[in-house]
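User: I'm putting together notes for a lab meeting next week and I want to include a structural view of one of the chains we've been expressing. I don't have a solved structure, so I'd like a prediction I can at least talk through. The sequence is below, exactly as it appears in our construct file.
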Amino acid sequence: MKTTIYLLAGLLSISLAHASERGYAYVSNQDGGVSVINLDTMETESKIDLQAKNPRGIGVTADGKYLVTANKDDENIAVIDRASGTLIKHIKVGKNPEFIRVIKNMVFVSTEPSSKGGPPPKPGEVAQAEDDDDDKVPARIAVVDLTKGKKVREIVGGPETEGIEFSKDGKKVIVTNEADNTITVHDFKTGKLLKTISTKEYGERPRGIKVSPDGSYYVSTLEYGNKFIVLDKNFKVSRTVDTGQAPYGISFDSKGERIYVASSKEKALQVFDAKTFEKVKDIPSGNRCWHFSFTPDEKEILLACGKSDAVVVIDTQTLEKTKEIADKEMPWGVVVYPKSMGSLDRP
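Assistant: Thanks for the context. Below is the predicted structure for the 347-residue chain, given as structure tokens.
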């Protein structure tokens, strides 16, 4: 009997070890919940019911205990026990929550009180309600303490804050504000505005923002400029780099050797040398591919393509698309655990 028990226990431990060997990817779906992808099999293993609608931003705590999503229609974030996929609670954060960054046990969530919904104006067009004072209401970055289980403060950004990043030393929060074409820098502890950088002369609608692994510079995509800008550690623009149409998510690899850009309307993941800024390759992707993540071993990239009903898998050595994982609930963002580099996260 003991031998049988030990054998069963051994088989179970082997099975569990195999199931989590490479980790898991978590995909937020605007028309559903969260898809859980087993990175060993590159197949969707399960779905998480958030009991909320239109999740977009997604993040995971450093210890892997919690998964967090920003749920637009419910004006809240969902806090999920990552291991079991069980909803723990909803926390109200404000109107139109979109982008999430998790650092330690704190969640930073962009909210857009001035957002009217619908498609953005085309380049050069004026937003329909631009004269409406409501459209000039600054966005708020809601700061949620997961230990306390509540929103503890807000940081005032520009209209329609989009991306969120932290400086390498953790002392600053950097946000992109698409509606007024600015990048703002804030004190991490107080939220005080330290600097405002206008992007209008380089391009409109700043979207993604990422610090290099060594902390020496930042890159930010300009959706209507079809380029990304490079800012030094003091947030001075040092150069611009041309991209394909409508660049959105952006990230370095963990060594800081390459920069990856999801160019949505170009239908490509573009790869650039992080020193020379020369383009390495365009990798065909799909429709409305906004956010992506490396696997923890950095052998592959998972790219969420909302209008292709798929998560595209790309080999980082060959820079070729190797697979599409079907997802018909409009995938928006993707993060992995163990944590890895990506447009929504970093280790």
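A couple of points you could mention at the meeting. The chain has one domain: 23-117+136-337. The two ends are 45 Å apart (CA to CA).

User: Perfect, that's what I needed.
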